[in-house]
Hints:
Rossmann fold; 13 helices
Amino acid sequence: xxxxxxxxxxxxxxxxxxxxxxxxxxxxxxxxxxxxxxxxxxxxxxxxxxxxxxxxxxxxxxxxxxxxxxxxxxxxxxxxxxxxxxxxxxxxxxxxxxxxxxxxxxxxxxxxxxxxxxxxxxxxxxxxxxxxxxxxxxxxxxxxxxxxxxxxxxxxxxxxxxxxxxxxxxxxxxxxxxxxxxxxxxxxxxxxxxxxxxxxxxxxxxxxxxxxxxxxxxxxxxxxxxxxxxxxxxxxxxxxxxxxxxxxxxxxxxxxxxxxxxxxxxxxxxxxxxxxxxxxxxxxxxxxxxxxxxxxxxxxxxxxxxxxxxxxxxxxxxxxxxxxxxxxxxxxxxxxxxxxxxx
Amino acid sequence: xxxxxxxxxxxxxxxxxxxxxxxxxxxxxxxxxxxxxxxxxxxxxxxxxxxxxxxxxxxxxxxxxxxxxxxxxxxxxxxxxxxxxxxxxxxxxxxxxxxxxxxxxxxxxxxxxxxxxxxxxxxxxxxxxxxxxxxxxxxxxxxxxxxxxxxxxxxxxxxxxxxxxxxxxxxxxxxxxxxxxxxxxxxxxxxxxxxxxxxxxxxxxxxxxxxxxxxxxxxxxxxxxxxxxxxxxxxxxxxxxxxxxxxxxxxxxxxxxxxxxxxxxxxxxxxxxxxxxxxxxxxxxxxxxxxxxxxxxxxxxxxxxxxxxxxxxxxxxxxxxxxxxxxxxxxxxxxxxxxxxxx
DNA sequence: CTGAAAGCGCTTACAG
DNA sequence: CTGAAAGCGCTTACAG
Lengths: 343, 343
């Protein structure tokens, strides 16, 4: 029946007071070693678990880190969460996860609910719809440590952890050029998200570096889902003006590209090479296997949690904004490997 | 700066006491309509939010439903969670999600942590490794409503929500037989999980109904991941004794089957038809598209949450164990559609 | 219909 | 080094 054991129970059995027990448990410097030992031993024996709710009410600290992601079902985000959890648990924090389902309104509602829940820290990857960030302002005002990962708001002065998306797209384009492609199209997401903006910039600069001037009709915005990637590809095919390669800013989009090209009898990579972003599990399920930029999601999560925990151990004055960018890793697979065919 | 507003602030401004404010907020029958109206109005005006932590400490109720799943990255589980969240939020509960990563030890650690967190209710889908359920016993003893979904423990007397896996496998086999298959192999998971046991039983009974006696070497246990599904398929190919069809008890396994068969130059579905379970997003990414049993995951989640909330509104005596089985839905796609080729 | 008081299980400034 | 007391923000049995 596991009767609840409180510090009063411990105090009574040890002929001392709750104050002393509480201090001993916290390893307070002014409690004698002997008393600490006695308290610890009895706590162990009675399987005493401090009540986190009471602690929270008293101290205002909840030991909870909240995470908001667009969707947990995306491998990328699931894996970031795993990284956050790992570091959080090691440091005595628990993690609660919410999903915005890519909707601004839902994200706002979650933020409001979390505000009420008095979480200690917050890690966020914003929804595709989000362009206004005022729902995060109350956390910043209250001094709640907050970090954005992957999908970070450019205009906000907050800590950010991301992959170097500019560099990633740059490398992807150079890889395609090395395969003999010159006319490279780019399917991207909303330019309001810096991840997509940076990828677009990296794409353009890499092209220009190699003397290729990307045309306006080589670029498709908001073509990041399976459906929109498919749609864009249909338009490309209909135009009759086919590229050498398509760089999609996401794997779902890239899958849409591949399926649509195949259906139209266009060979991949021979006619058109395809590269995606995120290195999702299913990239190797498809034929040909999809070349994709790995974003080292777990690392992103671990680093995000580390930043939050560091800040939790600092006074608001000591805290400083961190901007961390990880180098990308291009996973080269058959969908972009023209070269090997001519080896 | 959003100074915290308490019921004392409300009471003072209304010239009444915290007791009355508290009761008015709860719509207590013995408070006058007029007082309720005044309290509500001021609460609205000052944007009063009752402190959930204080409520929790006082009442022992946290308004939190915890969910434990093997992994959030599986589409199936992500979608169940969405269903749970939807119903929970509507009823004023919040949801916290934990993942066992398919490990018994992790699941046990999570259960222990949750016990301490004093959640109100628990929804669980057990890990592949779990065969002992004693870590859930403390919740049952305490009277915490608990429901298992999809992966349910057979031996425990608790509420369960699942798909009729027996029927699902039965239908899948009859579909394959209708396509002209007779020698049908079955790749399954650990027999300790009832989902797999029931699928195996449905497979066997459907075979026997049609006068086919499944041989022992037609059945592979623990071949449920991409890797193990691949491994089993290699063994099948090596044996030289090829089946007409393979029914895999999961989509990851089925993908392993398809990729391996294709690599060996075996045609799908012409030589071997393939059927999976779970209707994952990527089923339509693969060539040929994978026939799979849809488990109506969101519905499972909604129903699980409804059961918990019903029980939360009942006294422990009123509560009764519910067993709900949903009918399966076979999503027929090219990987099993031999018939159309001969139409 | 409303109020005064106790208490949920902790922590911590104050005092010694 | 240890203790007595107050308080975090609520709810509710008891009293009127």
